[in-house]
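agent> Task received from the user: take the single chain below, predict its 3D structure, and emit structure tokens. No templates, no multimer pairing.
agent> Plan: (1) validate residues, (2) run structure prediction, (3) serialize to tokens, (4) report one or two observations.
agent> Step 1 OK, no nonstandard residues flagged.
tool_call: predict_structure(input=
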Amino acid sequence: MKRLAILLLALALPCAAAATDYTVQPTASTLGFSGTFQGESFDGRFGQWTAAISYDAANLASSKFDVEVTLASVKTGDSDRDGALPETDFFDTAKFPKAHFVTTGFRRTGTQVIADGNLTLRGVTKPVSLAVTFKPQGSGATLDVSGTVRRLDFGVGGGEYADTSVIGADVKIDAHLQLAAR
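)
tool_result: status=success, residues=182
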């Protein structure tokens, strides 16, 4: 009887520990941000990025996100801003072409799931927490994440652009991912 219980436990553990791996459907997904310039809000999007998503809402310990963003693919709809963001005062894409976010863990705050991780931008790595909304849909899911980073923590818009009354200190991150199970 004891051996049967051990065998059943051994068989159940691999199933409980495995999150589902998902592939992002790029045409139905967005990775963006919003900020303020001279008191006016603006939105931006990144056109090139990859995301390795493994998620299990019932077993957050087995979940992980790994996202890499090509910073030069930024678009805000304003040609002056779009030209300035890749330059040395902001993203400095010649020296730091990518941003990278990888989770370190997940936690629940009431009904909300929070993805804690590290964001590396301009060679600076800082902890970032993102609110997660995961909705299964057939053989896939939608995943929405949102959070806020302080741009000056990463040296974005430093120097003469460090005045937070002109360019807001906080940048809101938002992503909507359409996922297909692998």
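agent> Step 4: summary for the user.
The longest strand covers residues 124-137.
agent> Done.
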